[in-house]
Amino acid sequence: MQKLFIIPALALLIAAPAAAEEVHLTADERVEWHQNEQKMVAVGNAVATKQDMNIRADRMTAFYETSKKGGEKARSNIRDVHAVGGVVMTSPNAKAYGDTMDYDLIKDEMILRGKPVSKIVTNDNKTITATESITYYPSQDKAVALGDVVAKDPENTIYGNKMISFFTKNAQNQTELDKVEIYSDTNQVKIVNDQATVTGEWGVYLPKINKVRLYKHVVINQEGNILNGDYAETDLKTGISRVLSDKKSGKRVSGVFIEKDKEAEKNNAPQKKQPTADKAENKTNADKAGDKSPDWSLKEKE
């Protein structure tokens, strides 16, 4: 199998908010302040900008609450943001597309929904789509994609109903992908590329060791040749896949291999040059020596 990926999509787009950071809200038509309802409404190409990330939508509403401690001056804190209509979230590494976006700072979750799908596209042409939602939990360093989830790069496509991405901070305090768990309601997680199709009940991608594993009732199908086992492991550095059995199960790895059609191979093979008259005569005499010609061919002497 070729190189596989699961993109840490929402981590590329959104970082956990810092209280001191400012959010700038603009719109082409109008920005309304509803003081009694404690909300701000931006209409017409509304854009919320924070550092190097921005969110654009047809309409955006931000709800806030006012707090005051001791003799401090009262301050307003945004508690949730709702964006609707042509939502586009942009960061230096990727873009996310949907119909609605809800960011609840109290629950600490950001939910992107789209019809027919919500979608994330990275600058290096990798995508992830989900029919239900893509949710990011900043303080938990976790993202969850739900509903016919498809992760795709130029070489591989991964199918599942649920993908959970877990992130960690590296030595430079940068967010990086730790692992991705892949699940399916039909117990068939699937990885497809030009070389093979691999299926299993669930899987996990481990970027730090550059391997992907599928578990339970695993099948590798490569041009009709089939391997079955308890789990499969693919080394993304070498492209080598292997099927293994769980010693506790007592089951053995099994396989079915299909012999290629000789006649089809013959028809697909490059046409040889026609022999000269002398060679043709010699071949005819050789054919007369037996009732049947052999089912293999020997190279003629020059």
Describe this structure in words.
- Strand 4 and strand 5 form a beta hairpin.
- By secondary structure, the protein is mostly beta strands.
- The longest helix is centred in the C-terminal third of the chain and has 12 residues, at 277-288.
- The protein starts with 8 loop residues before the first helix and ends in a 14-residue tail after the last helix.
- The chain has a 20-stranded antiparallel beta sheet that branches.
- The model is unreliable at 1-20 and 284-302 (pLDDT under 50).
- The chain has three helices and 20 strands.
- Helix content is 8%, strand content 52%.
Question: Average pLDDT value?
Answer: 77
The sequence of SSEs as H and E is HEEEEEEEEEEEEEEEEEEEEHH
Q: Distance between the terminal alpha carbons, to the nearest Å?
A: 42 Å
Class per helix and strand makeup = mainly beta
- Main sheet attributes: strand count, strand direction, barrel closure: 20 strands, antiparallel
The proportion of strand residues reads over 45%
Low confidence ranges:
1-20, 284-302
Helix content: under 10%
Secondary structure: number of strands: 20
Note the overall shape.
elongated
Number of helices: 3
User: C-alpha Rg, in Å?
Assistant: 29 Å
